[in-house]
Each structure stands twice: as structure tokens, then as C-alpha cells.
Design brief:
By secondary structure, the protein is of the alpha+beta class. It is 33% helix and 29% strand. It has helices at residues 2-9, 17-26, 40-50, 79-92, 134-137, 149-158, 176-192, and strands spanning 34-37, 54-58, 72-76, 99-103, 109-118, 122-129, 140-144, 196-207, 210-213, 216-220.
Length: 221
């Protein structure tokens, strides 16, 4: 893939969030509508294209975790708020001034999907409860790639919080077929691209029944 080759040629160990999502999108994994901007004119064009509410994030392959560094602003509801947020994020970035403008996905259920390259087994796919509780609860399941659909469906039923995928509190049941496709395709990325060492999609938010990758990181060998 061109984006992976470019990063390898530049000697980078990771892709930016925007680049990471380009990889996901190439494998038919649903991502947020988004674009990168470097100035106020670009920001205005992005606002026009995507609409409100928005999320703005500092975007660079050197930024793995944006929270706590003043590099992410959420629930931006008008042009003035967007411009102020853009200025604050650029001021907090060390060198780069690329800002990711993305639609704000509304959904209360957050999942995590990932890939690690095990020295013995090769690419392994991970699925579990996402968001801020990923590290705390460690409610996850693993399979070695390649995955068949029944593997992916089994992974969903193995986590303790599997009931959040059902119709609950007025929210529709998760689209398990689409979730299964995502897990299968994450495995495919690892199998077909030796340069990919890890993938972290967190959170994968259920927007109604549809899972959408809201943040993503691809780490390279």
C-alpha cells in the first residue's frame, strides 16, 4: 500500500491517525468522515463539507495519545468554536500544524479492535470493550488470523460485556455481520502487509447499530 510504503521510506515507526484510517478504509472498515487541514481556509472548507458537531485533533505520526496534551477538542458546534479550537491545538503541537477535522460520532457503546504480530503465531486479532476502560477491565478475546466468520462471531460472545452488543436501553443490536467483517479484515491487513506490527482501533463506536472507527493507530515494524 502506498501509505505504508511512504512511511517506510521515511523511516517512521507509526502512521498518523489519518493515514491509519486510510489503511482501514482500503479494507472496507467504516471510518469517520474527516479531512486534514493546515490553515483556516482549509478548516472552513472542512466545516462546510462535514457539518457540525465536529471533533478536532492534532494529527501526526509522532502523536500516539492526544488526550491530556491539549490536542483534542470535541463537540464543536459552530465556526467560532472550531476556529478557537484550531488555534489552541496548533499552539500545543511541537512542529507539525496538521489538524484532523472529523464528524463527531454519537454512540454510548465503545469497542476496541486490534492486531498484534506474535513472533510464534503471526498476526493475532483482538476484540473487546473499548474506550477509557480498555486498559482497566481488559475484557478482550483473541484469535490468530486468518479469521472465518464463525471465529469473529465467537470472539464477540466471549467478552464478559457481550450483552452490550444486544438491543439494550432503547439502542439497537450491533450489526454483528459488519463487526465480523471488520475483525476478518483487520486480520487480512496483518496477513497481507508484513510492515504492519500493530493496529489499535479504539474506540470503535456503535453509531446506532453500525460500528465506526473513531480513532486508529497503525504501528510499523
Amino acid at each position: 500500500m502506498e501509505v505504508l510504503q511512504k512511511a517506510a521510506d521515511e523511516g517512521r515507526s507509526a502512521l498518523s491517525e489519518y493515514e491509519s484510517k486510510q489503511v482501514l478504509e482500503a479494507y472496507h472498515i467504516p471510518i469517520t468522515r474527516e479531512r486534514t487541514v493546515t490553515d483556516e481556509d482549509g478548516l472552513r472548507a472542512a466545516m462546510e463539507e462535514i457539518g457540525f458537531p465536529l471533533v478536532l485533533k492534532g494529527c501526526s505520526s509522532n502523536i500516539a495519545h492526544k488526550t491530556g496534551k491539549g490536542l483534542i477538542e470535541v463537540d464543536i458546534r459552530n465556526a467560532d468554536e472550531a476556529l478557537d479550537a484550531f488555534k489552541r491545538i496548533v499552539a500545543n503541537m511541537a512542529e507539525e500544524d496538521e489538524v484532523l477535522v472529523q464528524e463527531m460520532i454519537k454512540g454510548q457503546r465503545e469497542l476496541v479492535v486490534g492486531l498484534t504480530r506474535d513472533p510464534q503465531f503471526g498476526p493475532c486479532v483482538m476484540f473487546g470493550l473499548g474506550g477509557i476502560f480498555t486498559e482497566v477491565l481488559k475484557d478482550i478475546s483473541f484469535r490468530v488470523a486468518p479469521l472465518e466468520k464463525y471465529d469473529a462471531l465467537e470472539m464477540m460472545s466471549e467478552i464478559k460485556a457481550h450483552k452490550i452488543l444486544d438491543a439494550v436501553r432503547g439502542m439497537p443490536a450491533a450489526d454483528r455481520d459488519l463487526l465480523a467483517d471488520i475483525l476478518i479484515n483487520v486480520g487480512r491487513i496483518g496477513l497481507e502487509n508484513d510492515a504492519v506490527k500493530e493496529i489499535d482501533i479504539n474506540p470503535l463506536i456503535l453509531s446506532g447499530s453500525k460500528p465506526v472507527a473513531v480513532d486508529a493507530l497503525v504501528v510499523l515494524e
